[in-house]
Automatic annotation (TrEMBL):
Signal peptide: none
Keyword Transmembrane included in the entry's annotation: yes
Keywords: Membrane, Transmembrane, Transmembrane helix
Organism listed in the record: Belliella buryatensis
SUPFAM superfamilies, A to Z: Single hybrid motif
Protein name: Multidrug resistance efflux pump
Residue stretches spanning the membrane: 36-53
Protein origin, superkingdom: Bacteria
One term of GO molecular function: efflux transmembrane transporter activity
Length: 450
């Protein structure tokens, strides 16, 4: 730059009247502005290289992590009429405490002695089944006795058959002997008649021989008659032996028929007793359902059915209960375009309703009044609002969430993603590019693979 103050013309000519020329000469203030501008540019360059935390911001509300710890409604299992309330809204109840008493409105259960009379029916059917059981045992004993008796009768009939066979053999021998005697007697009678004709025998001797022959002939006829009688007895013994089995089968079939009839009646009685026992158990449980009990420890929040004498249907909602000591979580809803950026384990910062906070989205470490969280679950389908639900729990590495935080409180969530330079984030925002999908570690791994 030309230094006018050192121009030789300055010694000869005065420039005090040339205001424009005087204004062009550098002053101390201009030099300060240039230095400030240079430092500002240098600071800006350094600033754009500072780390910036990418984030996805979404609103949500406080809920419970486990489904059984979330607010629930208590239903009535049976239809009934409200008789008495034992609690008020806001009361703390323990599991099993009686909340409400209802009475029956169906005529099938009006009888105050329904359980006792049903038990009597059960006992009667059980005794009936036992009596049929005893009858079955008696029939079985009768069948066993018939089998034993049949064995003895068959042995007796077999012995009779054997005796008849031996008697037939004995009578046949006697008959053969009688035939031999008859043949000898006939020959002797012929010889005696010849000797009588020759005069060698007297008539008395001949008549005596004739009488003896008549006895032999009668003995032959008697022996043959005895043989035929023995054969008839043998046939009768065989018939009796065969009839024993037939008679046994007939008696056993009759006894078994009666036994099976008794067994059928026994099974029918047992089935009826089981059905009545089931009915008695149902009545007993139904009686217990008249008292509406607290399903778990919690606080009564809202009574849906109110008043005394009001009737309610089966499965009707009676009241809502808020479980105590629930593990809190936050339900966030993110846009589909931001869903691929979130994974279980991602860090989240929350601003809860009622707790003031100063938030720097890109520098969460500078934020004040926020609370840390960690993603534990992400839905695989969009909800009615066309957003995906993300469950976030308290981060154990951060300060605990406020003690007074309740289910249903609003929460403004900031899901923390990758750390990138500020210039990169400005460039991304200007071009409308999404945030980084991968962590810094995954980027390095992909770089090594390439």
């Amino acid at each position: 730059m030309l230094n006018i103050s050192r121009n030789n013309v300055e010694k000869k000519v005065s420039f005090e009247g040339f205001k424009s020329l005087v204004m062009s000469e550098p002053s101390d203030q201009s030099k300060k502005r240039v230095r400030v501008m240079l430092w500002f540019l240098l600071g800006t360059v350094l600033f754009i290289f500072l780390p910036w935390t990418q984030n996805v911001r979404s609103n949500g509300y406080v809920t419970a992590l486990r489904p059984d710890q979330r607010p629930q409604t208590v239903h009535s299992i049976i239809a009934g009429r409200i008789e008495k309330w034992y609690v008020s809204e806001g009361d703390y109840v323990s599991k099993g405490d009686t909340i409400l008493l209802i009475s029956e409105i169906k005529d099938d259960y009006f009888d105050p002695q329904l359980l006792e009379r049903t038990q009597l029916q059960v006992d009667a059917k059980v005794l009936s089944a036992k009596s049929y059981e005893q009858k079955v045992k008696a029939q079985q004993m009768q069948i066993d006795a018939l089998r034993s008796n049949n064995i003895l009768r068959k042995e007796q009939a077999t012995n009779r058959l054997r005796m008849a066979e031996l008697k037939v053999t004995s009578d046949s021998i006697r008959f053969e002997q009688a035939k031999v005697n008859f043949s000898i007697g006939e020959q002797q009678l012929q010889r005696a008649e010849e000797l009588l004709e020759k005069g060698l025998r007297s008539l008395t001797d001949f008549e005596t021989r004739k009488l003896r022959f008549q006895e032999v002939q009668a003995n032959l006829i008697a022996s043959e008659n005895n043989l035929l009688s023995s054969r008839n007895e043998l046939i009768a013994a065989q018939i009796e032996l065969n009839a024993i089995d037939n008679d046994f089968r007939d008696r056993v079939a009759k006894a078994e028929s009666e036994m099976y009839s008794a067994m059928s009646s026994q099974f029918d009685s047992e089935a009826a007793a089981t059905k009545l026992s089931n009915q008695f158990t149902n009545y007993e449980f139904r009686t217990g359902f008249r008292h509406i009990l607290a399903p778990q420890d919690g606080y009564i929040t809202q009574a849906i059915q109110v008043g005394i004498g009001e009737t309610i249907k089966e499965g009707a909602q009676i009241l809502s209960i808020l479980p105590a000591d629930a593990q809190l979580a936050v339900e966030m809803f993110v846009e589909p375009v931001d869903l691929p950026l979130l994974r279980p384990g991602n860090k989240v910062r929350f601003i809860f309703d009622g707790w003031p906070a100063i938030v720097f989205s890109g520098w969460p470490q500078l934020s004040n009044g926020t609370f840390g969280g960690k993603v534990v679950a992400i839905d695989n389908f969009a909800g009615p609002n066309n957003k995906y639900r993300v469950l976030v729990v308290e981060d154990p590495e951060e300060d605990p969430w406020p003690y007074a935080l309740k289910i249903g409180s609003g929460a403004d969530g900031i899901a923390l993603l990758n750390d990138v330079p500020i210039w990169y984030e400005i460039w991304r925002q200007l071009n409308g590019f999404p945030a980084d999908y991968y962590t810094r570690k995954e980027k390095l791994a992909n770089k090594d693979n390439k």
